Amino acid sequence: MIHKSLSLYSSWLLVIAATILFAGSAVMAGATTNIIYNFTGGTDGGAAYSGLIADKSGNLYGATVGGGATSGLGLGVVFELSPAGAGWTETVLYAFQGGSDGQNPWSGLVMDGAGNLYGATAGGGGSSNCTDACGTVFELSPPSTQGGTWTETVLYRFQGGSGDGSWPSSTLVFDKTGNLYGTTRYGGSTSGYGTVFELSPSAGGGEWTETILHSFQGLDGEFPQVGLVFGKGGALYGTASTGGSRSALAGSIYELVLKGGTWVFHALYAFEGGSDGQGPESQLVVDKLGNLYGTTVGGGSLGFGTVFEVTLPQSGSPLTHTVLYSFQGSADGAYPIGALVFDKSGNLYGTTNGGEGGPQFGGTVYQLAPPGAPGGSWTETVLHLFEGGPQGANPNAGLVFGKAGSLYGTTPSGGADGVGTVFKTVP
User: Cα separation of 148 and 126, whole Å?
Assistant: First the structure.
């Protein structure tokens, strides 16, 4: 299984490599993929481990773990990519300094209706309870005049330990009243297995108020790496990358339901670590019927990961977990980490961190098409095979739809300078 760790802060320039032999080749669909930006690792940022969001004008926003400084590795940036003629222009909206403002944003971004951006940094914030401090949740506000400077405001600084979480690496989600929800990989109770938290705006301004909604204990899951999603009825759903009641290494799916003003936690599904998958490290997505979809980075028929569906109990029917696709570790891809995205026809799109493509095992962009008849098999089509080097390698995050149905994503490695890219795939 591929895990992020704090030690990666000092080695984010390294490329994920694999020393295995390949056989066969991918069958490509009629898709095109182009690199629209190459990070240099300098002031523009480098190593984009999180995905992108798009605004109504077609601009893209994201974060990098490193870069942002004129020398050294830097502590990460938030950036904007804007269409400019036949190309794209990158603008760094904020470069983290590593003090109370935070450092190393692993999480993706979310935008509110006023154009403010919200995210989390895994380190920084000023607490002495964690190595490199315990992390922050921040807001970036656009300038009042065009060309002005974006303003960073730290909404919360994590303190670590049993009373709080640490290392927030998840993408945040808003509810209808403006509260933010997310997870921390560590901290919470005495176990330190991570938390689910809520942040509410303070009435008098200043830092927001945090409420720990759940502290993981092990049998209910451990070390949640990704954020939450709202499902039908306002319930929150998420995954824990390890733990669970069936296997300590396999992970779990959970639910939080608001009852009488209190969020109540339910463990929905514990992975066995075999053919059903192991290590859910992607944020879930919900279809129109309320069914959940996600990926596991390991397990499946050959151990290279799965795409799964969970149908929630309804009218007395039990919860069901179904593997829609097991990766074979060759031209079809391996180790899906990033979240899935639906198109209007019900097809799913995602990325794999590995897959046949040269000595760096560069990863794929893939489509899963639903069966034509109930009970049939989903069909995988590889839209792009990363070959490492200038083409980029090892996408860690999912995709976002932009204008005209194009898909956009990031790679944390490869590219012209070896520190990652932003790419565009037209299915």
Answer: 28
Whether 338 contacts 396, CB under 8 Å: yes
Q: Which two tokens stand for residue 215?
A: 């502290």
Q: pLDDT digits over 195-228, tens only?
A: 999 999 988 878 999 999 999 999 999 999 999 9
Closest CA to 240 of 284, 207, 200: 284
CA dist., res. 190 & res. 181, Å (int): 22
Average pLDDT along the chain:
91
Distance of CA 95 to CAs 133, 156, 234, 256, 323, Å? 17, 18, 35, 35, 41
Query: Could you give the CA distance from residue 27 to residue 313 in angstroms, rounded to a whole number?
Result: 38
Q: SS3 letters for the chain?
A: CCCCCHHHHHCCCCCCCCCCCCCCCCCECCCEEEEEEECCCCCCCECCCCCCEECCCCCEEEEECECCCCCCCCCCEEEEEEEECCEEEEEEEEECCCCCCCECCCCCCEECCCCCEEEEECECCCCCCCCCCCCEEEEEECCCCCCCCCEEEEEEECCCCCCCEECCCCCCEECCCCCEEEEECEECCCCCECEEEEEECCCCCCCCEEEEEEECCECCEECCCCCCEECHHHCEEEEECECCCCCCCCCEEEEEEEECCEEEEEEEEECCCCCCCECCCCCCEECCCCCEEEEECEECCCCECEEEEEECCCCCCCCEEEEEEECCCCCCCECCCCCCEECCCCCEEEEECECCCCCCCCCEEEEEECCCCCCCCCEEEEEEECCCHHHCECCCCCCEECHHHCEEEEECEECCCCECEEEEEEC
Contacts of 93 (CB under 8 A, 6+ apart): 61, 77, 78, 79, 80, 117, 140, 150
Question: Per the structure block, which two tokens stand in for 237?
Answer: 């759903």
Residue 59 burial (CB < 10 Å; 0-12/13-18/19+)?
Answer: middle
Q: What are phi and psi of 320, to 5 degrees?
A: -125, 140
Is the model's pLDDT at 130 over the cut of 80?
yes
Reported for 78-84, long-range contacts at CB under 8 A and 24+ positions apart, including other chains, are: 78/105, 78/109, 78/117, 78/119, 78/140, 78/150, 79/44, 79/45, 81/36, 81/37, 81/422, 82/58, 83/58, 83/59
Q: Which pLDDT does position 155 carry in this prediction?
A: 98
